Amino acid sequence: MSDSSRHHQIAAVARRSFILTSWSLVAGIPATAAGFGFRPQALESSDALPASFPTQPPELVKEMVTVAHGNVARVKALIARHQTLAKAAWDWGFGDWESALGAASHVGNREIAEFLLANGARPSIFSAAMLGQLGVVRAFVTASPGTQRIHGPHSITLLKHALAGGAQAKAVADYLMSIGGSDEKPAEQPLTAEDRAKLAGVYPFGASSAESLEIVIAKEQLTIGRPGGVPRGLSHLGAYDFYPMGAQNVRVRFRESAGVVTMTIHDPDIVVTATKRSAG
């Protein structure tokens, strides 16, 4: 065998190994369902690389951010195979980006946060607040006044991150409360049960069943999402204007005319217009 042929064979094995390793971590998710455009049997081919390569498989990244909220064992298993997943970030919708470290931070999971940081996660003011690193948080605010007003994933405030850290982060929480601004959010307006029922439903924006948005009532709050996707909570600003969780500059607006409800999504231009499907 020539050196050239041997090199090609080694490269092919390496590519197959990468894909098999990645998919062994995406528990139970078939390749076609994840949208990578290949089937498991195609791994026998040296050219069977997903269209997303060399980026990490999206479902693997999503899983990493998901389990970083509290599944310590799974976090360690994923990092053991792909250390770079310590830096993983996922957009849950409308630009609501959340990193694995951000997930651990807003739920107050110190063990996962410290493990991610030890494996290359990028620290932030939010992780510092939860971990009780007063000097770091104070330095951020001193260097960039007003930083305490920035929200973390899902529109969770900086103060809430500090409170999630418990007794070990009390000094940070006390400091943030003393300077003000660290727990500010737009005032949410009440929405009656009749209003929620009026707006809830399916809003098609295309020909296929998948081309629609669902407005669902969950614990007296409206959520928005694609069928089978992760719904995002909607905060009511008044007059049927809402913003989705984690995206305060996006507007979801409902207007009723002659008994027909139309929804528009502005980001900042109108990106979707859809009419609620009638019950009949």
Describe the structure.
The N and C termini lie far apart (70 Å). The protein is an alpha+beta fold and 280 residues long. It is 36% helix and 19% strand. The protein has helices at 3-25, 58-67, 72-81, 100-106, 110-118, 125-131, 134-143, 158-164, 170-179, 193-199; strands at 89-91, 97-99, 201-204, 212-218, 221-225, 232-238, 241-244, 251-257, 260-266, 270-275.
SSE order and pairing:
Elements: H1 3-25, H2 58-67, H3 72-81, E1 89-91, E2 97-99, H4 100-106, H5 110-118, H6 125-131, H7 134-143, H8 158-164, H9 170-179, H10 193-199, E3 201-204, E4 212-218, E5 221-225, E6 232-238, E7 241-244, E8 251-257, E9 260-266, E10 270-275
> Helicity range of the residues?
25-40%
Strand content: 15-25%
Shape summary: globular
What average pLDDT do the residues reach?
86
Uncertain residue segments: 3-46
Q: Numbering strands along the chain, what is their spatial order in the largest sheet?
A: 3-4-5-6-7-8-9-10
Strand count: 10
Order of helices and strands: HHHEEHHHHHHHEEEEEEEE
Largest sheet: 8 strands, antiparallel
Q: State the end-to-end distance.
A: 70 Å
